[in-house]
Amino acid sequence: MCGGIAVRNAAVFSPCPDASVLFDPVLDKETVLNGKAGEIVIAYAIRRVLMLIPVLIGMSIITFSIVHAIPGSPAQAILGDRANPEAVKQLNESMGLNDPLYVQYFRYLGNVLQGDLGTSYKTGRPILDEIGPYLAATVELAVMAMIIAVFFGVNLGILSAWRQNSAIDYTSMVIALIGVSMPIFWLGLLEQWVFAQELGWLPSNGRIDPRMTFESITHFYFIDALIQGDFYALQDAFNHIWLPAIALGTIPMAIIARMTRSSMLEVMRSDYIRTARAKGVGEVLIVYKHALKNAFIPILTVFGLQMGLLLGGAVLTETIFSWPGIGRYLYDAIVSRDYPVIQSGILVIATIFVLINLIVDLLYAYVDPRIQYGKE
Amino acid sequence: MSMNAPTMPTQEPMQPMSNSPMEEKESAWQDTWRALLRHRSAMIGGIIILFFIFIAVVAPLLLPFGYNQIDADSRLQAPSADHWFGTDDLGRDIFARVIYGARISLWVGFFAITGSIVAGSLLGLIAGFYGGWRDVIISRLFDILLAFPGILLAIAIVAMLGPGLENAMYAIAIINIPTFGRLMRSRVLAVKQEDFVMAALAIGMKNSRILLRHVLPNSWTPIMVQGTLGFATAVLEAAALGFIGLGAQPPEPEWGKMLSDSRSFIQSAPWTMIFPGLAIMFTVLGFNLLGDGLRDILDPRMKQ
């Protein structure tokens, strides 16, 4: 799947190319020289956005099927196994579950487009009202995980490339390899055991100390704490986010490190780096200013693909650390068979994933207009 | 990208593109095999995999305990001479459970990835070779499947089919189809331009024969590499589904499920968590190492 370990090979055989490879206009040297490149990038952007439509329709069909493919009717699921058959029949009728499937699908699609994500069986509240705080918690965690992944991944990769075949190179690449092979739920449990239970350095669960009187306005705790100037809460939020963010960030970190290393190795051999060296530019400046800039494009691709992995991984990480995010929301729904929540939770995460990929693709076209789109 | 030893001799890669006669083909295979034996990380990966296959096959012969032998008197015992990996909350021997778990994980990985390769390759062949509306439909289908983060789509599929090991296996197979499908499609598009395919078309060879005789043999090297790496992903995905309760059901000794069962005893009995996790990590590591090595050897473009 795009997002798993397979992503590492995206640059190799392109098993998982971003959709751009299939549908892009050709951008060759002449077009660039004639100044039509801008138009073509815009045309590409429009096509790329239009391409989302069949994907989103397909996604909605899959999520719609979740509720309808389960054994027994949703009415039965709401009322429980021992419900009166008459009551089940009545509820089926009132929920429109006796209508033909396509009617039900279009009704579902209409509702989703109007922002109605259904009602949770468990809480009886509209999912749209519930989902906001969960989403904010996941975004906060994912951003923190990505900061960790990019910071350590890029620097580890640079260090490896800079001292290729040295002990540092081997050590960091072994760390990266173990990183991609490590199940994140196991890493999470190990972290809890060592850092929370044995050493007692960091809290093992939740987002903030429940005893703390902390009012959340935006649902982003870091922003809330800063707005209110509550630095004690800020520190507590930091303490809580470390362990889950490290668990979630490890795989992207490892993949970014490997990608950075190979792409830096290529750039470091180029003539302009040799020129810079000949001019007497310092090593640090060469690496961070000259080389990294050009090594950044493959890193950007990996970054986009990894955001998806992060969203998927959030289900596991949030479950372990009782992080009240959308992954945990989804997990609880799975446990309690709350199908509308499963359906909408998956739809929301997948939509975010698709949008992130769109942004990365467009960014990619913007950063490197030389790329020969559409030439397979 | 890989971690070749500095001392590693640079092997001559086999030529996956060549449409050589039979005897040359055999020597190409021998070259690959020899290159594999010289590739240090691939060898380590291969040995790890063979080790797990070995313990999975001979599991019952190795063990004095069954994987589901409950013993209330020896609950949560630390590792000892009797119980090498300790016991779990029901007094079951963790060593036995981890070893039987290898059977489950390798089994699931093998069937899921074989299924993905067969279905993905078939769809990719059709899309790439025939093009037109078939390509549009199949490619859009891949786009839709890839629009979900992998594990999430697996969760959706298992939610539809119902929890269980077999359904988890189907889910993992389905989510990995587009990876192989796109790979095959792009290889077919490249091979289609080769002179020998043109020649075959020109002399009026049937499509099915061209596909089987020329396109498929010249496309499957990257599939093999991706399949090895995909095996690693499949093992992780199966464990993840087991961990959230959608995969293997009790009392099956599945590694992911064992980890989620261990959560209540992390402090009092960390061994319940350490050994199944190590087993998952080493299996995945083995397939990643071998896959990386195969790629270095089979794909000359990646050589540095």
TrEMBL record, chain A:
Q: Which residues form the ABC transmembrane type-1 domain?
A: 135-364
> Can the keyword Protease be found in this entry's annotation?
no
Major place of residence: membrane
| Record CDD domains | TM_PBP2
**Spans traversing the lipid bilayer:** 49-70, 141-162, 174-195, 241-260, 295-321, 341-367
One GO cellular component this record assigns the protein to is: plasma membrane
Biological process terms from the Gene Ontology for this record are: transmembrane transport
Which key words are in the record?
Cell membrane, Membrane, Transmembrane, Transmembrane helix, Transport
- Family, as annotated: Belongs to the binding-protein-dependent transport system permease family.
Could you tell me what this protein is called? Answer: Peptide ABC transporter permease
Could you tell me which species this protein originates from?
Marinithermofilum abyssi
* Organism ancestry: Bacteria, Bacillati, Bacillota, Bacilli, Bacillales
Automatic annotation (TrEMBL), chain B:
TM ranges are 42-63, 104-129, 141-162, 228-248, 269-290
**Domain ABC transmembrane type-1 residues, every copy:** 102-291
**What's the chief localization of this chain?**
membrane
Q: Which cell locations does it reside in?
A: Cell membrane
Residues of the region (Disordered) are 1-23
Entry's Gene Ontology BP terms = transmembrane transport
Could you tell me the keywords of this UniProt record?
Cell membrane, Membrane, Transmembrane, Transmembrane helix, Transport
Protein name per the record: Diguanylate cyclase
The organism of origin for this protein:
Marinithermofilum abyssi
